[in-house]
Amino acid sequence: MKHPIKINKSYSIINQMAREIKADRIVILVDENTSKHCLKRFKKKSRIKGSVIQIQSGEQNKDIDTLQSIWEQMLREGMTRKSLLINLGGGVIGDMGGFAASTYMRGMTFIQVPTTLLSMVDASVGGKLGIDFRQMKNMVGVFNAPHLVWIDTHYLKTLPADEIQSGMGEVIKHSLIADKQLWKQLRNHPTISDWKSLVKRNVEIKKAVVAADPKEQGIRKILNYGHTVGHAIESHYLHTDSPLLHGQAIIMGMLVENIISRDRGILSPKHCHQINTYLADQVKNLSLSASATDFESMLLTMAKDKKNSNGKLKLSLLQKPGSCTYNVTVSPQEVLRALGASNLFG
Questions:
Q1: The CATH number of domain 161-341, selected from 3.40.50.1100, 3.90.45.10, 1.20.1090.10, 3.50.70.10
Q2: Strand-pair category, 5-7 with 128-133
Q3: Neighbours of 208 (CB within 10 A)
Q4: For FRET with 230, which of 98, 237, 247, 337 sits at 20 to 30 Å CA-CA?
């Protein structure tokens, strides 16, 4: 699943690609945030004169109703298989816009222009597209590559602190599963001075794993480290007064899964303590509460996870910084015990 990924390159590449595919319509998909903070710069720099479709931001809007709205507006704009959709935004925009383009008239060309740290280092790379369904993360979707992923790290300047924190969740994950030197760098130098280099390294990690296993039949599953538990936590709080951003939930998911890995003897107590102390510090500003009943609810969500097989809960668990295993069968009791031992929920 190859697609070119350009970081801080000339905007002329986008216009060039639009000409190459002979696009009869160009439409830019945004939300209210990218419309306000990113669209003007994008149109000025790229000289793209396309129409704009705007949707509401947020994971709670990554659903079939919003997807249907995108399709309806694409129809009204007169888009065809020869048209081009440019997804200017974070993970929600990229996932939904890519899915809409992949299914509209059985498929049309789209370009991902990620504007959040999370979408730059993770969501825009690898061709996973989709929507949430019945409060289950990414339950309906496809694998499909964009024509281009075009990254401008200037857009990171528009982000609030919690969005940076969310993106760092995936950066931390990449370092722990595949690059112990990056993990060491993050621990020793918490202030990021070179965003381009950081984004570039994370894209390299994600691309290498995806290239080895495009359809997630094996090694690509290590990218799910922290996600089985993290998605359940994210889904649980999504419609409460304390919703979490994706990367925040993944940080919590990694912490809980590390406890399971330690108790299994897969991750050493020393490494577990070192890593979990760091992870806990990343989310110390979040104030959450959960009861035993809430943990049971999270467990029910995990039971529906796409990565499970034969009714068994399957996790990707850390072995040591830079190394991760996958398809580890764990019991409900292990998960509940780790949730309770995590000290994340007040």
A1: 1.20.1090.10
A2: unpaired
A3: 11
A4: 98
Residue 319 — pLDDT band, cuts 50, 70, 90?
very high
What are the boundaries of each domain within the chain?
Answer: 5-158, 161-341
In this predicted model, what pLDDT tens digit does every residue of 129-148 receive, in sequence order? Answer: 999 998 888 999 999 999 99
Q: Looking at the structure, give the CATH architecture of the domain made up of residues 5-158.
A: 3-Layer(aba) Sandwich (3.40)
pTM check: above 0.90: yes
340 vs 292: CA distance, rounded Å:
8
| DSSP H helices in the chain | 12-20, 32-37, 39-46, 64-76, 91-103, 117-118, 161-178, 180-188, 195-212, 227-237, 246-263, 269-282, 292-303, 332-341
Measured distance CA(220)–CA(230) in Å, rounded: 17
Q: Are 173 and 250 in contact (CB under 8 A)?
A: yes
